[in-house]
Design brief:
This protein has 200 residues and is mainly α. It is 82% helix and 0% strand. Helix 2 runs antiparallel to helix 3, helix 3 runs parallel beside helix 6 and helix 5 crosses helix 6. The two termini are 33 Å apart.
Length: 200
């Protein structure tokens, strides 16, 4: 493995992170309603789960899902239902004032984990990128470097993103239009959930 391959992997990963999706929406919603720490911890959960999917891709678990498609389907439906549940809660509480209660660290981290663990397509994406960027088999130490790099890059991205979103001007703008933003987020999250459920 050379530095160019790792840089290429990081560029593809950053492009994927910056694209709108369920993870990005969930971090936005969490940060502006529960604060910077909650957003960062949610991002840590998302990044940890995504790195685990990358490790799974290296270990060839997509082949296991091919042999046992019911396991892939079960995981995908579970993730889809979780996204739909988040969408329903977001819609129901669109007019609620955000609470200033202390953030439960474990809950924010676990929520991020669940959002990304419920999307096994992340592993298929990682497997495709790995085949292109790292065509030759990697040694275990190199796999460890790539997985750790993936996790740290996601952690840094979400930390910066949550910090920017938690600035007073961004928070005030969101809270002013909270019912509209929450209904839009609920619709999109529910749409992601339904798409995940029906896609093959």
């Amino acid at each position: 493995m050379d530095a160019q391959s790792l840089i290429a992997f990081n560029l593809v990963l950053l492009a994927a992170l910056a694209s709108p999706g369920a993870a990005m929406l969930y971090v936005i919603k969490t940060t502006v309603t529960s604060g910077r720490l909650a957003g960062i911890l949610t991002g840590f959960g998302l990044g940890t789960a995504a790195a685990c999917w990358t490790l799974a891709a290296f270990l060839g678990l997509e082949s296991l899902f091919t042999l046992f498609p019911w396991a892939y389907t079960a995981l995908k439906i579970g993730g889809a239902l979780y996204l739909i549940w988040i969408a329903i809660q977001t819609w129901r509480h669109a007019h609620d004032t955000p609470s200033d209660a202390p953030v439960l660290k474990a809950r924010s981290f676990a929520a991020g984990l669940l959002v990304n663990f419920g999307n096994p397509k992340s592993m298929l994406f990682a497997a495709a990128v790995i085949l292109v960027v790292f065509p030759a088999p990697l040694h275990p130490a190199e796999i460890g470097i790539v997985v750790a790099n993936h996790m740290v890059l996601e952690w840094l991205f979400y930390t910066l993103f949550a910090t920017l979103l938690s600035m007073p001007a961004a928070r005030r703008g969101y809270l002013r239009l909270k019912p509209v933003f929450d209904r839009i987020a609920a619709t999109l999250l529910g749409g992601f959930g339904l798409k995940l459920m029906i896609e093959r």
